[in-house]
Amino acid sequence: MILTVSVTPLYAYVTPAITSSRAAPVVIAGLGPIRPDEGGATALGPPGARRMKKKRKQTKKSKKFYAQQTAQSRVKAEIITKYAASRATIISSAGATKVVYIDLWAGRGRYDDDTESTPLMVLRRAINDPVVKKSLVTIFNDKDHADALQAEIKALPGIETLTHEPAVYDMEVGAATPEMFQKMKLAPTLAFLDPWGYAGLSRKLIRSLLKDWACEVMFFFNFNRVNMDITNETVTAHMQALFGSERLLTLRAAVGELSGEARERAVMAALFEMVREVGGQFIVPFRFVKDGAERTSHHLVFTSKNFLGYKIMRDVMAKASSYHAADGVASFEYNSMPPLFLADGRSVEALAESLAVDLAGSVMTVEQVFERHSRHRLYVMPNYREALLRLEKAGRVTMDPAAGDRRPYRGKPSLPEDVRVTFPRQPWSGAKMLASRSTPDPRTSALQT
Question: Order of strands, edge to edge, in the sheet holding 434-435?
């Protein structure tokens, strides 16, 4: 059974199509009714917006997009689905009764070639998980394809086994949307934002969805379109909503003399600065290279306030990468024509050198090394283990227990997270040997702010 939406969207009255003994439908974050403000603005649109009764016609662009799933769309959907399933399992297993997934530009649910898109993939994973199916609250919105998505969800085998019925809306994301979320205390929420172009994606929206405990945001950043329009005065309002007025002025001045990779680095630096400003403490991007051209089309950007979510997403994105160097370092991008090497200089050897210098004079566990040093770096734990093993073999660090006292694994000494690593002082630094004060308590590591 699928939800239909009343004429008061997302605030209070989400009503089931037929009577059921299942759990009552859940509004955003499962926290009960939210009333309209005095101005009468609806949740996802401007004042006076209402659910459209007529079936909307697909645009030519939409028809072309949904004709067949591209490899890029498949990779994007797999990253989102795998991470959503992992976080839902962790939070649900910890006792949470509601774990929320929000998709404000959800699409049709299925391509013309019968391939499922992200909403159906997320729901199917939940249906097959005995823990997650009891706690997952899903809220989908798409102003053009809500009817098609609702029909696809209704036909999904096992959908009736979910405790919380999926809610489907067809409102346009507008200025009132972040205001609504800002007023609410969200349950643990993963929000995915993937607008056509960039209209609707804003600092305020990301902040409103990220502000509460265990809330995380993923958004598809259309670099190609944004890059073209940064200096376009006719879309200044959209650019200001995304970057902020002062930052946009600075960015416009900076990119005027830049092109290619230098221009992209400037744009992405401004974007990450904005994300940190609205509360994102950890950020990891995944780059999509335009088919048939060596230039960026999009970035899938994830942000969290907790290291564990950041760690898991890096694992997911690393595995989804189209290229892995011989030493195991992932490209963190999808490119139908993978490069011959990583142009950004990342390698296990470079990581080992960075560890020896950055952590000189300290003593800490492998887990602490990774959590402290890997922030803002596109490496995963296997890269760190390999780098540490190389340093140990070269006699540049000592470990307790030593290599000979640890069981072998695939022809090398194993390296559990509780092994203590001593980084000698650099001979020219005069730094004192510092021991880490404590090992992070695993009971307090799960997706906390």
Answer: 398-400, 420-422, 362-365, 434-435
- Cα 125 to chain centroid distance, Å, stands at 17
Cα separation of 324 and 337, whole Å?
A: 13
Look up the CATH number of domain 348-439: 1.10.10
pTM for the whole thing? 0.83
Q: Which of 135, 91, 131, 119 is nearest to 309 (CA)?
A: 91
Three-state SS at 57: coil
> Which residue type sits at 52?
M
SS3 label, residue 133: helix
CA–centroid distance for 403 within its chain: 37
With beta carbons less than 8 A apart as the criterion, state whether 383 and 348 touch. yes
Domain boundaries, the chain: 3-334, 348-439
What is the token pair recorded at 7? Answer: 């004429």
pLDDT in tens, 105-164: 999 999 888 899 999 999 999 999 999 999 999 999 999 999 999 999 999 999 999 999
Comparing C-alpha atoms, which of 336, 337, 323, 317 is closest to residue 70?
336
333 forms bridges with which residues in the sheet? 287
Name the 3-class secondary structure at 137.
Answer: strand
Nearest by Cα to 139 from 11, 8, 27, 23: 27
What is the fold of 3-334? Rossmann fold (3.40.50)
* Contact indicator for 173, 241 with CB cutoff of 8 Å: no
Helix residue ranges, H only, 4-70:
60-67
Q: Is 259 exposed, middle or buried (0-12, 13-18, 19+ CB in 10 A)?
A: exposed
Q: How far is CA 376 from CA 313, 349, 372, in A?
A: 13, 18, 10
Could you tell me if 378 and 323 are in contact, meaning their C-beta atoms sit under 8 angstroms apart?
Answer: no
Calpha distance 252→266 (Å, rounded): 10
